[in-house]
Amino acid sequence: MAEQHLPPTFRLPASRKLRPIQQGELDGLCGIYSLINAIRLIKFEAGVFRAIESEALFSFAIYRLANTGDIRERICTGVPWGVLKQLGQHMAKVASEECVELRVAPVKRGQANRIATIKRHLLSGTPIIASVHRDQHYTVLAGWTPTRAVLFDSSGSHWVPLESIKRTLCLAVSVSGTLGV
Fold it and tell me: pTM (2 decimals)?
């Protein structure tokens, strides 16, 4: 599907019905919040969302993060990309259910049609975690307009320029089997 065949605007339906979980002003855990928010979007759409699960996922993530090194450092400076990918894969397994098996996988960089690829993931119901603002913040991409990427963000942001996601680090959070977009 070429980019010209994609709709000019789109937004994950669940992102219109849920509010993103917000992070604190003094923590660097936007990556964890992004993973939880992306999982919430998928599970809400699948009809298996339970609000209490967000707290359990956060506790699980903090426990796993503490095992990777100095938790105080992670809270203050953030979660490195490699750790976030591994953590995301573990969180997807924990959040999976019989009817919704979750998966986290990187979206390759360097492709000429990368924005179209990201849009196709979104159309298939797959939220994208992206490292934005010069890799200073992780957020969830939940849609697009002709010029903006629409966010489901833990810090209250609503959009970033669409072109800015061309080279960002991205993870697709999907129901198993939907990443072959």
Answer: 0.92
Q: What is the rounded average pLDDT for all residues in the chain?
A: 91
158, burial (CB in 10 Å: exposed 0-12, middle 13-18, buried 19+) = exposed
Q: 3-state secondary structure string, the chain?
A: CCHHHCCCCEECHHHHHCCCCCCCCCCCCHHHHHHHHHHHHHHHHHCCCCCHHHHHHHHHHHHHHHCCCCHHHHHHHCCCHHHHHHHHHHHHHHHCCCCCCEEEEECCCCCCCHHHHHHHHHHCCCCEEEEECCCCEEEEEEEECCCEEEECCCCCCCEEEHHHHCCCCEEEEEECCCCCC
Nearest to 129 by CA among 53, 36, 51, 60: 36
**Position 166 pLDDT exceeds 50:** yes
Q: In this prediction, what percent of the chain has a pLDDT beyond 70?
A: 94
Strands 137-144 and 10-11: antiparallel
CA dihedral 136, 11, 93, 106 (to 10 degrees): -50
Is pLDDT at 4 greater than 90 in this prediction?
A: no
